[in-house]
Every structure is written in structure tokens, then in C-alpha cells.
Design brief:
Two copies of one chain form a homodimer. By secondary structure, chain A is an all-alpha fold. Helices cover 65% and strands 0% of the residues of chain A. Chain A starts with 25 loop residues before the first helix and ends with a helix.
Chain lengths: 148, 148
């Protein structure tokens, strides 16, 4: 099994990374967040069967959970103020509740990061609970903020 | 400065994560890799001005380099065998040299992971050299395998 050498990971919040997404043009911002969500969806597509098999301590579970968390941070960047007028699947309501929305997405990134951590630690029960919380978080956020 | 608690990162190669990208349908595979490349391009858009300012030990540099590495691993997943017939920007040559191509992309992921590590360690000279190597790697791979 090929284990790449550990890379110290600074799971910085975007704020702490001092990075502004201002350089994203409005149309690029939409593509950017859609790209992140598309990749997130695939990570869940890998996690779901692992969850059904209760393979919570599988290395793939750790890897996909960690990736999901990183991608959620990127998705968050794509919701730039000036992309508000762009055609997308974002409900108008999101812009009225932007702070609450961002909090949710940030919490999702936290939950999935914790899930990666618990999975790596072999704590299957906590990993399972966090996975359920993850699915619930996807659903409730889509219900409220995504145009179906 | 908001520093999220450290998440242990298992920068597993995809092979070690035991995950197969077989579940990606051919058309989804193209979208998947394009999504990853799109996000990668933005990470470089953040790294470039940091490079110009020689801000190699900036936390944003670490974060973006690490993100770039992760995304390269995802991009690699999108080059599934049965997506060969799909319309995309991939040169036909890539399919003839697929092993060499995959090696290049894997090396790119390694180089950028090292860059994150050197940046985090405050080793600006090594970080700068790895960044130049990163740009060279983008260019030579695009020249050879991407339709302009």
C-alpha cells in the first residue's frame, strides 16, 4: 500500500488564509462553485457504498471525507457578492440569508473534516453519526437554497 | 486569525485509497476532470501574485499549494478509459501515452504537495523552485496533451 509521506495540513479557514475571491469574475464564480459541488457529489458517491458496508475505517473513507471538506471550502468561495445576478441554481433566498448560508457551508466543512479525523482514528460509531449528519446537511441546505 | 484545528491528513495516493473511478460515466468523467482543472486554475491565480511578491511563507501559499495537489489527484481520476470517445480538450495522443501522462500528473501532485510542505516550513527558496517547476509542469503537459 502506497502511503505518501504525511503532508502537514493547515486546514485554514479561507479567512485565515487571507485570500479574497474578489478576483473571480461573476460568471467564473458560478462555474467555480458548480465545479466544487460536482466534485463533492462524486466524493459522496464513493462514501455512500462505504457507509452501506459500514467500512468507516477504510482509508478511502478518510480520503473522501477529507476531500469533501476541502471542496466545501472551495464551493463557499464561489458565492461572491457580484455573482448574484448570474443564472445559476441558487435560490434568491440565499442572498437574503447569505450569512446563515455561509455558516451552514462552513459547518459542513467542519463536520466532514471531523468525520475524516474520526474515520482515521478508527472511531466507527462517531464516523457513522457524522456521515448521517453530513447527508442531512446536504439535504436541508439543498431544500432551502438550491433550485431543483 | 482563525486557525481551524489541525486535521491529520493522509495524502493517500488514489491507488492506496483503494478507490476506483469506474463508477464515473464517460460524460461525467470529462466533467469531473474539467471541474478539477478549473479549480486548479484558480488556485494558480492565487499563487501567482504571492509568487510575484515572494510571499512563499504566506499561509495562503500553503493552503493553495496543498489544494492544488489534492485537485490534481482528482483530475487524474477523470481520465477514465471509457471516456476516450467523449468530446473534450484532451489530445488523442494522451490515450496513446496514457501511462506517461498519468505519471506526469502524479508527479505534479507530488511537486505541489512538497511545495506546500516547504512553504509551511518557511523554506522560501525551495518553495520558489518548486513553484517554477509547477508552472513548467503545467505548460509542458498542456503543450503536449491539451487541445488549445
Amino acid at each position: 500500500m502506497l502511503l505518501r509521506k504525511l503532508v502537514p495540513v493547515f486546514a485554514l479557514s479561507l479567512a485565515s488564509a487571507g485570500v479574497s475571491a474578489d478576483r473571480l469574475k461573476p460568471e467564473d464564480a458560478v462555474e467555480y462553485r458548480q465545479s466544487a459541488f460536482r466534485l463533492m457529489s462524486f466524493q459522496l458517491g464513493v462514501l455512500n457504498p462505504l457507509h452501506r458496508r459500514q467500512a468507516y475505517d477504510d482509508e478511502a473513507f478518510v480520503y473522501r471525507a477529507e476531500t469533501l471538506s476541502r471542496l466545501a471550502e472551495l464551493a463557499l468561495e464561489g458565492f461572491t457578492e457580484d455573482s448574484k445576478g448570474q443564472q445559476s441554481r441558487t435560490q434568491a433566498r440565499m442572498w437574503d440569508e447569505r450569512e446563515a448560508f455561509e455558516t451552514r457551508l462552513r459547518e459542513f466543512a467542519e463536520t466532514t473534516a471531523q468525520m475524516a479525523e474520526r474515520s482515521a482514528a478508527g472511531d466507527s460509531r462517531a464516523t457513522r453519526d457524522l456521515f448521517r449528519q453530513t447527508l442531512q446537511s446536504c439535504k436541508s441546505c439543498h431544500d432551502r437554497y438550491r433550485i431543483e
